[in-house]
Design brief:
alpha+beta, paralog of FGE (formylglycine-generating enzyme), six-stranded antiparallel β-sheet, five-stranded antiparallel β-sheet
């Protein structure tokens, strides 16, 4: 094709080669009539069987006219089309500012990246409105004017060869029909692109601009597909630790593996990017909580029934293996160029597809609250009790809870423990169920999603810049929750905070033990205490540290709010300390991983801490209870 340099394609004189790919070659040319430089993209005839060329030329003319009607300030304009000695070509504006690809290789400030990507998002929104899907959004297809204005190019032609099944097969085998692997949405491998596919690709570009890395890379397209199918998205924070939480949340939503979990349209993505630049709150929520939110809020997409999700997870890796096998077969059969990309200013023409616009997600009214789901299990090291109640249930929000039977127990102690816990006394409590685990970030986020809870007062933890919205810490205790916020969450679940007496019985049982597991002094295998990991750990980590009733984490990790007002012992439930409407300091229980509030690091089950109800911090969490009746 380099032999075309110096020749004339009608009124266009070919000046130099700009780039070459699997299905097209791009030249810089001079328009002798209008006396200006243009870019000409010439279809490579050798990439297609001779018997397909007549069909190709007819459809090329029809589609070129259609593309020529597109007019947007951020789309490279189509000027002309033609045929030179049987070689179809397309004439476009020539831009001298290079491509976005030239600016990549190192992280870019997130604000600058969003400002550069927004015009491309507007352009994609425009073409989606015209029933076209780009299918090949990537940095080399985002060109720059001499003033630095980004422009979208390369869409609208590969569809010319994709209507018949045999045509699609030929196109794929020549390496031109799918897109560019590193930027392709998972569903593109199966030939089912939607607007969310372009959104995913644009999300990859933005991710690369901000972090300096692409999410998934491999030596082969099959390797990229396998990574997409089997590996979690690397968190942007791994590369840019100080990246704002909301920026990361938007990226995670745009790059969700399931198209239904992404933004429903480019215009919504644009609004999110604008909110980030303006410092407004974004609607994005990390995908980690989608299934739990459905279970806990009842807001289920009828088209994406939660019951189908486990099957969906199994199908995709199988599909990935099938596609990989397909690629291996093509190589074995001597398939041509696969997904070659044109370096530099312009690259091969990708596939536009007639757009099937998705309907807005149908969110039904909150489902009717049903009775707790009873899941009887054998209580871990449970003390003998006579009760007809199941040992473990799931409440109306699908949260596992453990039974603490009615009866007396020893509360407080007379030894050298916390002086605020003297004297020891016998206290009776009615039966109740207590959360098996401390309320986690994921569980609390479901309440935030239901607009019944406020976000935590801070998004990090003592040593982590991101925590609450970071999927890595989904199963860690919720932090920066004050007493009223904890109450609101429990009420949303039809529950309440435990009284101080209920909390202590759940932790100690009826044998007056000092710790949930017995009287053995704690170590890091039993509880997350001072000297272990210097921050929180997962709520289900310390299996050996369970209480007599199978409740996790009642010693260490974080202090836990109770409903009880601080008053001195002896404990008396009738003296006003259990009045939820009275003002005053509240009791927290269980100790934490950090020396806090004058506490020496004691994580005994009788240790008390008084806190102002407005306090929020990185050392205090909570859990809920419901009465058996």
């Amino acid at each position: 094709m380099s032999g075309l340099i110096g020749q004339n394609f009608g009124r266009y004189k070919i000046l130099e080669l700009l780039g070459e790919g699997g299905m097209a070659t791009v030249y810089k040319a001079y328009d002798t009539r209008l006396e200006r430089e243009v870019a000409i993209k010439v279809i490579r005839r050798e990439a297609f069987p001779p018997d397909e060329m007549e069909m190709l030329l007819k459809r090329f003319e029809r589609e070129s006219k259609s593309l020529g009607r597109l007019s947007h300030p951020n789309i490279v304009g189509v000027i002309d089309y033609g045929d030179f000695e049987g070689q179809p070509y397309l004439v476009m504006e020539y831009l001298s500012g290079g491509s976005l690809k030239d600016r990549l290789g190192r992280p870019m400030p997130w604000r600058e990246a969003i400002q550069l990507i927004l015009p491309i998002a507007y352009a994609l929104d425009y073409v989606h409105d015209h029933s076209i899907i780009n299918r090949d959004v990537k940095p080399s297809n985002i060109l720059m004017t001499d003033k630095g204005q980004p422009m979208l190019t390369d869409f609208g032609l590969v569809k010319l060869f994709g209507e018949k099944e045999k045509d699609a097969t030929n196109l794929t085998s020549s390496g031109t029909g799918l897109g560019t692997p590193d930027y392709m949405a998972p569903e593109q491998w199966t030939g089912e692109p939607t607007v969310q596919s372009d959104l995913y690709s644009l999300g990859v570009v933005l991710y690369e601009m901000i972090t300096g890395h692409r999410p998934y890379t491999a030596d082969t397209p099959a390797g990229v597909l396998l990574k997409q199918a089997t590996e979690a998205l690397p968190l942007p924070k791994l590369y840019i630790p100080d990246l704002p939480r909301d920026v990361e949340s938007v990226l995670l939503k745009a790059l969700a593996k399931n198209p239904a979990d992404r933004y429903t349209g480019m215009h919504i993505f644009i609004e999110e990017l604008q909110n980030l630049l303006a410092g407004r709150e974004v609607a994005a929520a990390t995908i980690k909580t989608s299934r739990l939110r459905e279970q806990m809020t009842g807001k289920v997409d009828r088209k994406q029934n939660a019951a189908l999700l486990p099957a969906r997870k199994k199908v995709f890796p199988i599909l990935a293996i099938a596609v990989v096998g397909f690629f291996v077969l093509l190589v074995a059969l001597g398939g041509g160029y696969f997904l070659l990309t044109t370096p530099g200013i312009l690259s091969p023409l990708p596939t536009p597809t007639k757009l099937v616009l998705p309907s807005p997600t149908e969110i039904p009214p909150t489902q009717e609250i049903i009775p707790p789901t009873v899941m009887p299990t054998e209580a871990a090291t449970a003390l003998p009790t006579e009760t007809s109640e199941p040992v473990e249930i799931k409440d109306i929000k699908n949260v596992p809870m453990r039974l603490v039977p009615a009866g007396e127990f020893t509360m407080g102690s007379d030894d050298t423990g916390d002086v605020g816990s003297r004297p020891a006394q016998t206290v009776y409590v009615d039966a109740f169920y207590m959360d098996k685990f401390e309320v986690s970030n994921e569980m609390y986020d479901a309440c935030v999603y239901a607009v019944e809870c406020r976000r935590p007062q801070q998004g990090g933890s003592a040593t982590r810049n991101t925590y609450f919205s970071n999927p890595v810490f989904a199963n860690y205790p919720a932090l920066y929750i004050d007493w009223k916020m904890a109450n609101a969450y429990c009420e949303w679940r039809g529950a309440r905070l435990p009284t101080e007496a209920e909390w202590e019985k759940a932790a100690r049982g009826t044998d007056a033990r000092m710790y949930p597991w017995g009287n053995q002094e704690p170590d890091c295998s039993l509880a997350n205490r001072v000297g272990c990991v210097a921050d929180t750990t997962p709520v289900d980590q310390h299996e050996k540290g369970q209480s007599p009733y199978g409740v996790y984490g009642l010693s260490g990790n974080v202090w836990e709010w109770t409903s009880t007002l601080f008053k001195k012992y002896p404990y008396d439930a009738t003296d006003g300390r259990e009045d939820p409407d009275k003002l005053g300091e509240r009791i927290a229980r269980g100790g934490s991983w950090h020396v806090f509030g004058g506490n020496s690091g004691n994580v005994r089950a009788d240790t008390r801490l008084k806190l102002d109800p407005g306090y929020f911090g990185g050392y205090v969490g909570f859990r809920c209870v419901v009465s058996v009746e």
